[in-house]
Write a structure and sequence with these properties.
By secondary structure, the protein is an alpha/beta fold. It has 2 domains: about 120 residues, Response regulator (Rossmann fold), CATH 3.40.50.2300; about 190 residues, Alpha-Beta Plaits, CATH 3.30.70. About 40% of the residues lie in helices and about 25% in strands. The protein contains 12 helices and 13 strands. Strands 6, 7, 8, 9, 10, 11, 12 and 13 form an 8-stranded mixed beta sheet that branches. A hairpin with a 2-residue loop joins strand 7 and strand 8. The longest helix is centred in the C-terminal third of the chain and has 23 residues. It is elongated, with a radius of gyration of 23 Å.
Length: about 350
């Protein structure tokens, strides 16, 4: 089940680095029917050069541990500096197993042993790639729960708190910026810090939609205080946006103001998508309502629905505001503003 999350997304290209031609051929034979391009390099230096020339072409690198010249660990660490999103795997014989295991504590994603069974090899490569991918959108605590029990990703209906955050006046802010400046602004000044805050409160970053972020609290792992976590995360996000603005003031034209909406209720969660691309996500009215609340929130404002307010166990400072009609909801929606 976990493998379906990234099938066709993570495994877009694989690079094998090994000084032994026989091993390279064996790996190529074992992986020839897999749905990704496979490339080979005979040394660490050659492999690094390949990645430097095509940093987005490869998603996974398998490197032998013991090689003349640059060893596998040094090779993979260098590749990680070029493109941290690449899944890096050490290939080792039993004699160097201890060193390979140690390598996983040095930002290497996993290891494979020689000799290898073809089926086990393919499954292990996918497993390591999945774990690498999961770490990008869930907190460390949730990650460990998922990898120890794949049932966490099975289709289910549960109550969650959904948070939507969106940059206000984004088009106006970036109209005179270059594509690189826009990408740096979104990735470095918004998605990364806000994502880290979500992880801190055990939220799952479901997706980025343009300049919006959708975060789930309660899926795939739930806690009794998910609503509290969502609100605490929102408050931290708003305060972080204020801090970031102090830095952005030195960069002409950029200003970070966000509106946040939170809704709580029953949703369906599971792996959805086409044969080519799948993702774990949640769908249902609470998702729609959170998005609507975010749309009407003023810059710096946090709006929550009545159900979220009812689920709070902590005494947040809140103010009830006039109900509003939102698209997709027949009755006026009760709205509460969170003060911070």
């Amino acid at each position: 089940m976990i493998n379906d999350v990234i099938q066709g997304v993570i495994m877009k290209g694989l690079l094998i680095i090994d000084d032994d031609e026989g091993v390279r051929r064996s790996l190529l034979r074992a992986l020839k029917k897999e749905p990704y391009e496979t490339h080979v390099s005979a040394s660490g230096e050659e492999g690094i050069s390949f990645i430097q020339n095509s940093p987005q072409k490869i998603s996974t690198v398998i490197s032998d541990y013991k090689m003349p010249g640059l060893d596998g660990l040094s090779t993979l660490l260098s590749i990680g500096e070029i493109n941290p999103s690449i899944t890096r795997i050490i290939l080792t014989g039993y004699a160097t197993m201890e060193a390979a295991i140690s390598a996983t504590n040095q930002r290497i994603d996993g290891f494979l042993t020689k000799p290898f069974d073809n089926l086990e090899l393919k499954l292990k490569i996918h497993e390591i790639a999945v774990k690498k991918h999961l770490k990008q959108f869930v907190s460390e605590q949730i990650y460990h729960k998922i990898v120890s029990n794949s049932g966490f990703l099975s289709p289910s209906t549960s109550e969650v708190s959904v948070l939507f955050s969106d940059i206000r006046n984004f088009t106006e802010i970036v109209q005179n910026a270059s594509p690189i400046e826009i990408a740096d602004f979104l990735n470095d000044d918004y998605f990364t810090p806000m994502g880290e805050i979500a992880f801190e409160f055990n939220g799952t970053v479901d997706k980025h939609i343009g300049d919006a972020i959708m975060v789930l609290f309660g899926s795939p792992v739930s806690y009794a205080d998910d609503a509290d976590r969502a609100v605490m995360s929102a408050i931290r996000m708003q305060k972080e946006a204020e801090r970031i603005n102090g830095v952005l003031a030195k960069r002409k034209g950029f200003h970070l103001s966000i509106g946040i909406g939170i809704s709580t209720g029953k949703v369906f969660s599971g792996i959805l998508g086409s044969m080519r691309k799948k993702e774990y996500t949640s769908v249902g009215m609470p998702v729609n309502i959170a998005s609507r609340l975010q749309n009407i929130a003023e810059p710096g404002e946090i709006l929550i629905c009545e159900r979220t307010h009812e689920k709070l166990s902590q005494p947040f400072d809140t103010t009830k505001i006039d109900p509003v009609y939102v698209k997709g909801v027949s009755e006026p929606l009760s709205i509460i503003q969170v003060n911070y």
